[in-house]
């Protein structure tokens, strides 16, 4: 998921806690995701806004 740059998503807070406690993972803003994508060999194609729960990135391999 991609978090907004500002503001909190109260609806997603329980998911955040489960992710952190289960895997030490965390959500990131698009600005925070960009270096992760760059280092993985993937390119961001688009960000899809889900109707009920946040935004997800669509990635493809670098050519």
Q: Can you describe this structure?
A:
- It is globular and about 40 Å long.
- Helix 1 links the parallel strand 1 (2-3) and strand 2.
- It has 2 helices and 4 strands; from the N terminus they run βαβαββ.
- The protein is 35% helix and 30% strand.
- Strands 1-2 form a two-stranded parallel ribbon.
- The protein has one domain (2-61).
- It is of the alpha+beta class and 63 residues long.
- The two termini are 24 Å apart.
Main beta sheet: strand number and arrangement?
Answer: 2 strands, parallel
Unreliable residue stretches: none
DSSP strand content? 25-35%
Q: Rg from C-alpha positions? A: 13 Å
Strand line-up of the largest beta sheet: 1-2
Total number of β-strand segments?
A: 4
What letter string, H or E per element, gives the SSE order? EHEHEE
What is the straight-line distance between the termini? 24 Å
Strand pairing plus helix content: what structural class?
alpha+beta
Overall average pLDDT: 83
């Amino acid at each position: 998921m991609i978090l907004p740059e500002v503001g909190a998503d109260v609806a997603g807070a329980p998911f955040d806690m489960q992710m952190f406690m289960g895997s030490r993972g965390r959500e990131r803003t698009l600005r925070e995701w960009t270096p992760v994508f760059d280092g993985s060999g993937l390119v961001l194609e688009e960000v899809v806004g889900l109707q009920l729960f946040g935004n997800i990135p669509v990635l493809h391999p670098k050519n």
